[in-house]
UniProtKB/TrEMBL annotation, chains A, B:
Naturally occurring in which organism (per UniProt): Algoriphagus lacus
EC number: 3.1.3.71
Pfam families membership: 2-ph_phosp
The protein's name in its UniProt record: Probable 2-phosphosulfolactate phosphatase
Catalytic activity: (2R)-O-phospho-3-sulfolactate + H2O = (2R)-3-sulfolactate + phosphate
Keywords: Hydrolase, Magnesium
Family: Belongs to the ComB family.
Requisite cofactors: Mg(2+)
First and last residue of the signal peptide: none
Lineage: Bacteria, Pseudomonadati, Bacteroidota, Cytophagia, Cytophagales
Amino acid sequence: MNKIEVCFSPELIHLHELRGKIVVVVDIFRATSTMVAALAHGVREILPFADLEACRKMQDKGFLIGGERNGLTAPGFEMGNSPVAYLQGNYSGRKLAMTTTNGTQAIEKSRGAQEILIGSFPNLQATVTYIQKKEKDVLIHCAGWKGRFNLEDSLYAGALVKSLESTHYADEDGALAMKSLFEKEGHDLKSYLSQASHAKRLQNHGIESDIDFCLTLDLYELVVKVDGRGFLVGVK
Amino acid sequence: MNKIEVCFSPELIHLHELRGKIVVVVDIFRATSTMVAALAHGVREILPFADLEACRKMQDKGFLIGGERNGLTAPGFEMGNSPVAYLQGNYSGRKLAMTTTNGTQAIEKSRGAQEILIGSFPNLQATVTYIQKKEKDVLIHCAGWKGRFNLEDSLYAGALVKSLESTHYADEDGALAMKSLFEKEGHDLKSYLSQASHAKRLQNHGIESDIDFCLTLDLYELVVKVDGRGFLVGVK
């Protein structure tokens, strides 16, 4: 058996060993869900940026640019952080440069891992299958909200711990707690997460369809990983 | 209704507003349980120290000194961090200076709150009753383990959120999650927490009776608070 653990915030990631592990970065509402949607619907590759201005400059290099801060499209950006915007395949073949409040920062802070995957409910089972072929310890890195614990990333962590229980032993308090939480609340994610602070934030922005998408299980067989150049790419 | 929130680590406390709130510091295994036990059994007052050497020097001023690092009594200290050591009342009337790996650091980082309470299962209901008279927002500050989330402090947080639900609204993701976790696992704390990493650490040190004590509900009607001088004192 391999081990599995959960880090609830990029501000705590320095307390976890990354080396030799598969790190699954998750920002359910909405960065990692959007990344998976974009790549599943034809975007060729995604270059994540923690910094807004560095991301903006990629437009000159032919990239589509996606930028979000505090749940809203950053000024001057073509795309915000909505997964639904990619579902028609309108950006097929494009390269995307993307920066978000929490998710892209968490990717940056995961460097040093053996492998970095991008987690979402729409490709949960694909990610599980991929990990189970690798025989590596797993660390789930929740992006949280501005450094704080959040409910949706934590529930995804619980879902992943539960899905991997035949191969990965939850010998760590965060993983144990989130597995229990998912067992109790995972049967109706949407209803439970309607209480979550970021779901409320998004509802205020009128993006119910994004929330529906982000909580839909197993739409895609695609796994998303960070490649040697730092790009996010889809692997089938 | 007032609000209630949970901070899972002293390393995240800077993300929470302390002002105007009652902060309940909790380090179930074992610092805050030991503090409550000591005061319930006659210790006059406790001065907490984050620093080991500063604590040690209090012996010259007539204090009983308690010091723990990594679960073991610190070299040269009279007392470790065992609540059971106080149950016979052998230290009645003494002043205690105390430093522990996680708990005393969390107290120090809670400065700035309207009021700081010390939480434990043996005085949970007393703490609930006290808080409900105050009509203030509550922040539960989990000491964790070396900055990381831990199961026992989190479950106490869930128990407190649940116990306060008639007066304090869990409008925050950490509080919501821990309430759910306690609802699922709170019926048999000892069995569930036997999986927790720090319980295993303590079992290795042969202190089963400490674990039993720390998970016993409502032995005392005492509330423990930090007074204006920074001492912990019992309030009935």
